[in-house]
Amino acid sequence: MSDTREIEIDQIDVPAGRRKVSPNWVAALADDIEAHRQRTPIEVIETGARFRLVSGAHRLAAQRLREAKTILAIVRAADAYASEAEIKLAEIAENMMRRELSVLDRAVDVAAWREIYEAAKGAVKRGGTRRVKSKSPVETLNLEAAAEAFAASFKEAASTALNLSAPTIYRYLQIASIDGAIRERIALHPMADNRSELVALATSPADLQAQMAALIVAGDAANVAHALAIIEAKPKPAPLSKWEKLSDGFSRLKQSDQERFFALHADAIELWLAKRRG
């Protein structure tokens, strides 16, 4: 049996040997709770008049930092876990079963977060069309200005805990500029967690990115540089000869225009037919 309710923080006991909480995460969570409320309840076991923490040490520490008196908790009965080992396994499972965001996931989330922030606070003034590097497809905004303005919106603790400095946001915005279909293709590939490779892909020629991603996902290229070398080494198609260009253009003409062409070149056509009859 369990229920979710507000409980007194002073009545919660934290078992010895728990992993150390990060002060930056605690401060960032405290700021977030202050602004948006507690998003996720902690989990405790009811032990008579008190409670024993199972999961949520950072949330508990954040509420204590805020000097809150109560915290939202999932309260389980004392017999919910058969032994100390099961309680410890529950804590480990909660930590291990969280799917960590890949670099690509974080980049897309940061870009979306920035869009929502700008919609509410006002967009960063655009500094004109600008390329990040000589081959970059990113041309829609001044990314450095956007990154600096967005980074400044975070409090110091959140910026440190989330690693959202202006240079990091700048790289995330570069990565998020990769076309959605390409991001989908590489989302489960190890490349999705390699920031330098993702930036290299994002700043490669836009018309080659899909080919490069395909080569990497297929295992035919080890990285972005290798994929680009493979593509650039492919022989370019030979240019069409004059007669091929003429034939291609002729095939695209309307029938009436083709007949005009025949009329203009009737002598040459009749000579060619006579040779064939031979």
TrEMBL record:
GO terms for cellular component: chromosome. One of its GO terms (biological process) is chromosome segregation. This is ParB-like N-terminal domain-containing protein. Residues 5-96 form the ParB-like N-terminal domain. It comes from Pelagibacterium halotolerans (strain DSM 22347 / JCM 15775 / CGMCC 1.7692 / B2). Pfam families: ParB_N. SMART domains: ParB. The lineage of its organism: Bacteria, Pseudomonadati, Pseudomonadota, Alphaproteobacteria, Hyphomicrobiales.
